[in-house]
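Worked Example 4.2. Consider the chain below.
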Amino acid sequence: MAAEHDFGCDQGTYWSQQLIWYDESGTNPIDISTWHARMQIRRQVQAGEYLIQLTDDPGDGITLGGADGTILLEMSAEQTADLPAVKGGNRHYYDLEMVPADGKVRRLVQGRFLVSAEVTR
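Applying the procedure from the previous section yields the following structure tokens:
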């Protein structure tokens, strides 16, 4: 099963999060040199449209660190400005999927994604 972790960002600011994928022992990073990654944020899990999508295509928000097992997630200030702020404790939802060469998708992490409203625009 995917790990559960909630993320948050300030609307209208640069956002980044770095993850490291370790093997089951928790000591050795997974070599993700031949893997691909994708992440989507949606208002609700069942929503037909996503708010934002990140992939490991160059400049598309995910940078994979090969043998180090690092996964850098990034959104520009312009991207986070377009994310609707969340009111009343409701949150958006996301998951991060990793795709190896054999195409057998693995969901690495999932959770809620809180966006704090920007006042200064």
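DSSP finds one helix and nine strands in the chain. The chain has one domain: 3-116. Compare this with Example 4.1 before moving on.
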